[in-house]
Amino acid sequence: MLITVNTVFISKEKEIKKNITDFSSTGVLFGDGKRNTIKLFDLDGKTINIKSFKIPNIINQVAYKYFRKSKARRSYEYANKLLQKGIGTPQPIAYAENFKVTGLEKSFYISEHLQADLTFRELVENPDYPDHENILRQFAKFTYDLHEKGIEFLDHSPGNTLIKKVSENQYEFYLVDLNRMNFHEVMDFDMRMKNFSRLTPKNEMLAVMSDEYAKYYNKEYEEIFSKMCFYTNDFQAKHHRKMVRKKKLLFWR
């Protein structure tokens, strides 16, 4: 097991390693654990979050050993890069990789656990959520700031932005599930609008976000809304076709 620990937490390396070693039998399960398993641990009174990535298929085991960085390593490095750029994400603590002869087997990403008030998903599922429009507008500005800093968060989806209320009318946003990102010098208009496509199928939410985005970007509201809807509808159609194909392939279940 190879482990890289943030210098801030280097004195806790032994405890962190033990939590990883005992991961299967200790810790408190967080989430459903369907794809990857996340557990919470105590580290000297601080709650930390350890994400265990599922074992890759044989091709990716080789790829992650010789050609590509693992998801755990990318999550750690991208978290540090986000913080350097002034973008919120839980404090990265460490990442660990377990290699065998054939390639990468297990990998873990360790970060501080953030107690959020909601995720973007609550805004999609509950249009009556308190302060709904204000939060949505601040989220649109947050996404604009991401784009201005050249950050293309490829998993910009409802569950991957944690939202924390910091005052009566003010909110902070934190990105999680960080292993898929691109960093650019400049993001063009289409790239920016496509980055909204996974968030919500609701036109009324897209309208609010378009209106807020237009306050900062050099396009009119109508053009932003039209392009945002185009990419959202395209994503929804592709997602629907994928689900239909999957259902047909797994008809026997």
Description:
This protein has 2 domains: 2-112, Phosphorylase Kinase, domain 1 (2-Layer Sandwich); 118-242, Orthogonal Bundle (Transferase(Phosphotransferase), domain 1). The strands form 3 sheets. A 6-stranded antiparallel β-sheet has the order 1-5-6-4-3-2, with helices on both faces. A 3-stranded antiparallel β-sheet has the order 7-9-10. The two termini are 37 Å apart. The protein has helices at residues 13-21, 58-66, 71-84, 120-125, 132-148, 189-194, 203-214, 221-249; strands spanning 2-5, 28-30, 37-43, 46-53, 92-100, 103-112, 118-119, 151-153, 161-167, 170-175, 181-183. The protein is built from 8 helices and 11 strands. It is globular and about 55 Å long. The chain has 253 residues and is of the alpha+beta class.
Keyword list:
253 residues, alpha+beta, Phosphorylase Kinase, domain 1, Transferase(Phosphotransferase), domain 1, six-stranded antiparallel beta sheet, 8 helices, 11 strands, globular
List the helices and strands and how they pair.
Layout: E1 2-5, H1 13-21, E2 28-30, E3 37-43, E4 46-53, H2 58-66, H3 71-84, E5 92-100, E6 103-112, E7 118-119, H4 120-125, H5 132-148, E8 151-153, E9 161-167, E10 170-175, E11 181-183, H6 189-194, H7 203-214, H8 221-249
Antiparallel strand pairs: 1-5, 2-3, 3-4, 4-6, 5-6, 7-9, 8-11, 9-10
